[in-house]
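REQUEST
  id: r-88c1
  op: predict_structure
  target: Crossover junction endodeoxyribonuclease RuvC
  payload:
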Amino acid sequence: MRVMGVDPGLTRCGISLVEGGTGRAVTALDVDVVRTPSDLELSQRLMRVADAAEYWMDTHEPQVVAVERVFAQHNVRTAMGTAQAGGVVALAAARRGIDVCFHTPSEVKAAVTGNGTAGKAQVTAMVTRILGLQKPPSPADAADALALAICHCWRAPMIARMAEAEKRAREQEKAFKARLARERRARRQAGAQR
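RESPONSE
  id: r-88c1
  status: 200
  body:
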């Protein structure tokens, strides 16, 4: 599975590409950080992030894009920019028919380090070790993008099993409700014939 990991941001947006093999084998194929100047208009900054993401998608043809889910930050302005950057990446993927999966920071940290509250240094060290890199990816946004892709490679089978289980549960619930409705109708008809 070829996964594009995205650590969204307006100032720095980490983008990576990882190939998942059998078991927990993963190989880093590429990583970069898109930077936009803070004095540029928001729309122009988002366009630069989108352009870079689209180039990566068209060049590397990932099967899925894993994006960090933004759910809370102390700085609302930063959270908004991060969410907007993640949104333009998700939109670019959707337009190409590429699946998008969102992972929370704690999910990524837990998958890569075993600790959902791990610090950036620990995530970077584990990414370096897991991928067998000669040196740690820098800046941290690059390591985070790689961690997102690794997380998705490792969690994708579980996510697929959960989605299949939910689908089967919905089908069973629908069949059960239909059976109950048939039994009620049969009882009403039997009562009317008496």
